[in-house]
């Protein structure tokens, strides 16, 4: 019986994803943060002010859980909430100066950990992986 390459690709992708997630979680933990805290701050750090809904969609945290995380980050003065003057239902999140300083310190170190994970992988191979995973992701998204 021949090997099922689709199944093997799936299993290897899932194992690699789990391993990458664990390494990045441990790195973030070293900086005194949880992955959800870091994900929200990182989105605000790179993309600027966003609504809670935009953040929730981009970091894949449910709207129920995200409120708890935002509350904690706000208490630590790492982000602030502001009401949208045009739409009372919308609330904006913005990183504070303290949050920016925190990310200025943490993010370059975190990026280095990620760079080390992909050390020795050619740019061409990285581009191929990106293309393939995008295709699979789009296909999986359309199955919902």
From TrEMBL:
It comes from the Bacteria. Keywords: DNA-binding, Transcription, Transcription regulation. InterPro entries: HTH_MarR-typ, MarR/SlyA-like, Tscrpt_reg_MarR-type_CS, WH-like_DNA-bd_sf, WH_DNA-bd_sf. GO terms for biological process: response to stress. It holds the Pfam family MarR. One of its GO terms (molecular function) is DNA-binding transcription factor activity. This is MarR family transcriptional regulator. Residues 1-138 form the HTH marR-type domain.
């Amino acid at each position: 019986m021949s090997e099922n390459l689709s199944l093997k690709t799936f299993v290897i992708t899932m194992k690699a994803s789990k391993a990458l997630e664990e390494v990045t979680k441990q790195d973030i933990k070293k900086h005194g943060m949880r992955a959800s805290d870091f994900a929200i701050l990182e989105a605000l750090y790179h993309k600027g002010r966003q609504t809670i809904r935009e953040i929730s969609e981009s970091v894949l945290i449910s709207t129920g859980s995200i409120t708890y995380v935002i509350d904690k980050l706000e208490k630590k003065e790492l982000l602030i909430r502001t009401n949208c003057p045009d739409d009372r239902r919308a609330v904006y999140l913005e990183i504070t100066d303290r949050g920016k300083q925190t990310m200025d310190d943490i993010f370059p170190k975190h990026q280095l950990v990620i760079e080390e994970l992909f050390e020795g992988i050619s740019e061409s191979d990285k581009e191929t992986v990106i293309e393939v995973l995008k295709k699979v992701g789009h296909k999986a998204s359309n199955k919902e």
